[in-house]
Amino acid sequence: MTTAHASSRGTAAMPARAMFGAVGGLVGGIAFGIMMQIMDMMPMIAMLVESDSIGVAWVIHLIISVIFGIIFGLLLASHRAARVLPASALGLVYGAIWWVIGGLWLMPARLGMPVFDVNEVAWKSLAGHLVYGLLLGLVYAGIYQLMRRGRGSASS
Q: Which of these, 21, 95, 102, 140, has the minimum number of CB atoms within 10 Å of its CB?
């Protein structure tokens, strides 16, 4: 049976890594969403699905945040993100990569705006993507450590 815990080898099973990433993605997405709400950027998210509803924007944003968190857990994290410092660094790099892919390329292209246009909105978006990535990494490492400690104390 597959369980969502860190193994005795110091690595987490794939379903656990996906779960840790999903939770980290949700936490990071909430923080990033609050930043976008304050900076009045959330309407652009709604426009991705041809809506003007802020509620729709939040749902879309959080779904994307969780999916990207799962990708982080499955592809990047593993044992490399088991500790806070490496997880934070990985998260920051991951957030910056998604800023380039999503914030500078895919989203503007979808909305008919110039791609790779680094302007004031783009810099605000970078800040949000970095906060997202940092929180994603920190939460991932925190859950990983909690699960590892829980398993260690349960087997003692």
A: 102
- Cβ pair 65, 26 in contact under 8 A: yes
Phi then psi dihedrals of residue 48, to 5 deg: -60, -30
Residue 156, exposed/middle/buried by CB under 10 A (0-12, 13-18, 19+)?
exposed
The structure's pTM equals 0.88
Maximum Cα interatomic distance, the chain, rounded to a whole number of Å: 59
Helix axes 120-154, 54-71, angle to 10 degrees: 50
In whole angstroms, how far apart are CA 152 and each of 20, 75, 139, 146, 155? 18, 25, 20, 10, 5
For the stretch 7-18, pLDDT in tens is 444 567 889 999
